[in-house]
Amino acid sequence: MKEQVIISGFGGQGVLSAGFLLAEASMHAGLEVTYYPSYGAEMRGGAANCHVVIADSDIYSPVISVADTLIALSQQAFERFASLVRAGGTILADKGVKHGEGAAHVITLPFEEVTLHELGNIRVLNTVILGAYAVLHQGWLKKQWLEEAITHKFSSKGQKVVDVNLKALERGYTLL
Hints:
By secondary structure, this protein is of the alpha/beta class.
């Protein structure tokens, strides 16, 4: 098993946090993981992406040239990385992302709408999308492991932050 995931969007959308959470949850599964973040010097508002490679054997490079999955948090992220997704791979994006037909399977869901109108906190957009991603990969990615990763990463910010992220994860699970 090998899953190569690119998560991309703007700085401030939680791109790097989403990658970190996915990497930590995958380690709970006993898998090998690499996490390779990249962001512009301007940070918030600039381009950000990370590569997460998950495998049940050795990983020789953290850099992804052909992805199995793209999680695109913005139109620009979609445009920049969609061509790197293998034929038959998956692109997970907000329903507002414009896309044409391609070799990858594009799944668009109302992530931003749910985050703003139901959860009232745009800062958990990344966690909602991770919930949807996890549904697609239930064979090896358990919800409990994502919950543990969220608790570990956000506990220093207080229980309220942990709780809103756990709620966002749960809501992401219900979108598919």
